[in-house]
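Researcher: Please translate sequence to C-alpha cells.
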Amino acid sequence: MAAAYGLRAVLRNAFCVRRTVFRAAVLLGLAATPGARAAAPVQLVVLGDSLAAGYGLDHADGFEARLAAALAVRGGAVRIVDGAVSGATSADGLARLDWVLGGLRAGKVAALVELGANDGLRGLPVRDLRANLTAILDRLAARHIPVLLAGMEAPPNLGAGYAARFRAVYAALGRRPGVVLEPFFLVGVAEVPGLIQADGLHPNPAGVRRVVAAILPYVMHVLRMARGEGA
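Model: Translation complete:
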C-alpha cells in the first residue's frame, strides 16, 4: 500500500454513511458560434462512490461540479451523468451500471469509473474487485464506450501483499483497449494536511480542486476518444 494512502482501520465504514442516489445532468459549454448549430454534448458517465459523489461537501464543491466547471472553461459540450453513490463497492457499481446506461440519450458517450475504495476499506477479496471491474469494462466495451479508469489504493493495515494485488488489478485493466488509466484518484491529496476532511479520508473543497486538476488531462483524453478524435 502506498504511504500516501495510510487510512486508519477505524475509518473502514466512512464511505457507507450516505445511501441516497441522485441523478443529475450538467450541460456544459453549449454556446455556439452565431448562426452555427450547437454540437450534441458528449455524455460522461461517472460511475463511482463517495469520492465522486462529493461526500460531506456542498454540491458546488463536489467532484462532479468542479469537473463540470473545469471542462466548461475548456469549451466543448459535455453532459455529466451522475452514477456516483456513497458507500458503493465495485459490486454495487456493476449492479447499477445497466440502470445508469439505460438513462442515456442517443449520442457519444464516455465513462469515468471510480470504484474500489470501499472494497479496500472492507478488505473484500481482490479477485472480486478484479471480476467486478472487468465486468464493468466488458459492458462498456460492448457499447463502444471509452473508459477512464481511476486507480485506487488499499489501506495499509491489510498488508503489503493485499495492497500489491489490489494495485495490480488497476494496472492490468488499464492496459485494455479503449481504457485510459489514472494510477491513483487521490494522488497528491490523500492524507495531505489542509486537503482532507476531518474524517481523514474524503477531500475537502481544496482537495477536490486538486483531484480535478490531476484527472482533467485524462478526462479530456477519453472525451476525445468518444468524439473519435484519437485513441
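Researcher: Any highlights?
Model: The first strand starts at residue 25 and ends at 28.
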